[in-house]
Design goal:
Helix content: over 70%
Largest sheet: none
Strand content: under 5%
Number of helices: 16
Structural class: mainly alpha
Order of helices and strands: HHHHHHHHHHHHHHHH
Radius of gyration: 21 Å
Distance between the termini: 54 Å
Length: 316
């Protein structure tokens, strides 16, 4: 939109007036906070640890120190299972808030082709960040990983990373809702056009999801890191962390492709005829996910105002 054009020429702002956008924005953020407050991490983490990992490769706590016995090949299996086991944890479930933004394309002539390009743009940063973090793990070696796996360190790492990611998601959601015109009007038209494309948005979403591994405190993941670090090889660390990246987004990619192939034409018609609606869905998903992260990993830890289900005695 040109700087000299009235903001009310934006169809999104015409269909969703200020009060309505404010109502939905605050409502979805409150919902994200409520979900974070009542999140039962014992149940969810236990599902990943005991059901997904336990029923496929066994006790990851015992496997962590068996690199010398099992070798490098098993590390790729361990990596994939560790990523899959983290799917529904508090440090990964918000990835599903990315699906609306990935699935909605306005390219009516090449729906599935555009979807494939978007998913590639999403996946590549996840793998690249994972590989870079794997290089770090390889350089650290066993002693270094043991140090960063200490509870105080891994929790501080999680709090910092996920609070920042949550803040970015909220900022992005507010831009989508049209509340930060004072910011976007100072951005060049070329930059606005670039970041408004589905490919650029998918890439940014991929960066955020890729950073999940950097902050992840999930024990199964940390045990996998212990295994990978025993190789004392940055190249090996990069390779297995890339496999872990694929594991952590496998379910998301499956749902995305299912959505596109079963309802792709319907979605593109919806996005083409009523583009303000998928934009609203994307904005609300970002705000809800961002609020969840900021509350769960930031505010609740700092002020001890979370874990409501545990405090009420609901979860034992």
């Amino acid at each position: 939109m040109d700087n000299h054009t009235s903001i009310y020429s934006d169809p999104f702002l015409e269909h969703y007036k200020t009060a309505r956008r404010l109502f939905w924005g605050i409502g979805i953020m409150l919902l994200g906070i409520i979900i974070a407050g009542f999140w039962n991490f014992h149940l969810v983490d236990g599902f990943g640890r005991d059901f997904i990992a336990g029923r496929t490769i066994g006790d990851t706590g015992l496997l962590a120190d068996t690199y010398g016995e099992r070798g490098g090949g098993f590390g790729f299996v361990f990596a994939a299972i560790a990523g899959l086991a983290a799917t529904f944890t508090a440090c990964n479930c918000v990835a599903f808030a990315m699906i609306p933004g990935l699935a909605c394309s306005t390219d009516k002539q090449a729906t599935r082709k555009t979807a494939i390009r978007a998913i590639i743009a999403f996946t590549l940063p996840v793998l690249a960040i994972g590989a870079a973090y794997g290089v770090f793990v390889g350089f650290l070696g066993s002693d270094g990983v043991a140090a960063i796996n200490e509870r105080a360190v891994r929790l501080a790492q999680a709090q910092a990373v996920f609070s920042i990611i949550g803040a970015v998601m909220i900022f992005w959601g507010l831009i989508e809702l049209g509340y930060l015109k004072w910011f976007t009007k100072h951005v060049s038209p070329l930059t606005r056009e670039f970041f408004s494309s589905s490919i650029a948005k998918a890439g940014l979403m991929g960066v955020l999801v890729g950073l999940f591994a950097v902050g992840r405190p999930f024990p199964v993941f940390r045990e996998f890191m212990t295994y990978a670090a025993a190789a004392d090889s940055p190249a090996y660390g990069a390779a297995v962390m890339t496999m872990h990246g694929l594991g952590q987004i496998a379910v998301l990619l499956g749902l995305f492709f299912l959505l596109v192939w079963l309802a792709g034409d319907m979605m593109v018609n919806w996005a083409t005829e009523k583009p303000w609606q998928p934009r609203m869905v994307t904005a609300l998903a970002l705000l809800g996910g961002g609020a969840y992260f900021v509350f769960y990993w930031g505010i609740a830890f700092i002020y001890d105002v979370g874990r409501w289900g545990f405090k009420l005695g609901w979860y034992g």
